[in-house]
Amino acid sequence: MSAPLLEVRGLSGGYDPIQIFSQIDLTLSAGESIGFFGPNGHGKSTLMKTISGVLAPWTGEIVLEGQRLNRAGERGSRRWRNFNYDVVTRRRMDPKKVARAGLIHVPEGSLLFPEMTVAETMDVAPVAAAGRGKSADRLAQVHDLFPRLRERLDSKIRYLSGGERQMVAIACGLLGDPKLMILDEPTLGLSPKLRIELCQAIASIKAAGVPLILIDQDVNFLTELIDRLYLFDHGRISGVLEKADIPSHEKLMAMLFGEPAA
Ligand SMILES: Nc1ncnc2c1ncn2[C@@H]1O[C@H](COP(=O)(O)OP(=O)(O)OP(=O)(O)O)[C@@H](O)[C@H]1O
Ligand SMILES: [Mg+2]
Fold first, then answer.
1. Ligand 2 is a single-atom ion; what residues have CB below 5 A from it?
2. Is the CB of 41 under 6 A from ligand 1?
3. What is the secondary structure of 111-178 as a DSSP string?
4. What is the pTM of this model?
5. Domain count, the chain
6. Residue 210 is part of a domain; what is its CATH number?
7. Looking at ligand 1, which atom is closest to the CA of residue 46?
8. pLDDT tens figures, 122-145
9. Range of the domain at 176
């Protein structure tokens, strides 16, 4: 039997000294996609930053296709955390290596460099795919998905709309040739029209064979794309729903927060 695509076991982490999440277990088989849904500020993005190595895990294991991504061991001493803990080989997880292994994280808020142009930004993105390259195919896919980016290639990121920035961020994720892509609230703050456009692009990415870990505030959108929904609150997984058991957005909101169904 082949190894699962991603296994997360007993993961905990946060912003030292504040722990944000604990005891997270997840398994994604090849080809599966999952969603996360939960209240604001309860730790979804922090968990994703830890899975992709932007933050060091405090405890637990992260394994991609059988390859352990984080080094064994508990949290380092304060001395290590304050100084060269992150830059010397003692580092327990390296986000560059995670990206090169094929786990690509498109973070919340499309963090791009405002003074770079779209073309420059998309030129550097395939670095994450080092050694796995299918960059010509991926570039063609990006141009198919986001035709409007062709017209904006020479624009600086700072002059783009929020939706266009989000397109560039997702395009960069794809140019990293993902085996698994984390999309953290990709449609946050977009107009309904742009949101629909972006949802369609994300559905096409999934249909083209890229498994997703998707965080979104709209359960109906998540349900279209995922195999399982993880309910997340207070830094814990509070429930797991298989696709067939996921209620509508309105019903789930009423179940979780007691609000009347609209
Ligand atoms: N860089 C940071 N340093 C310290 N605390 C942080 C940092 N970023 C987030 N936090 C705190 O960590 C907690 C979890 O935040 P996080 O962004 O992971 O939640 P979330 O579930 O993704 O929320 P949302 O749905 O609003 O995106 C919050 O209390 C937040 O204030
Ligand atoms: Mg978040």
1. 44-45, 108
2. yes
3. ---TTSBHHHHHHHGGGGGTTT--HHHHHHHHHHH-HHHHHTTTSBGGGS-HHHHHHHHHHHHHHT--
4. 0.91
5. 1
6. 3.40.50.300
7. 18
8. 998 888 777 666 677 888 899 999
9. 6-257
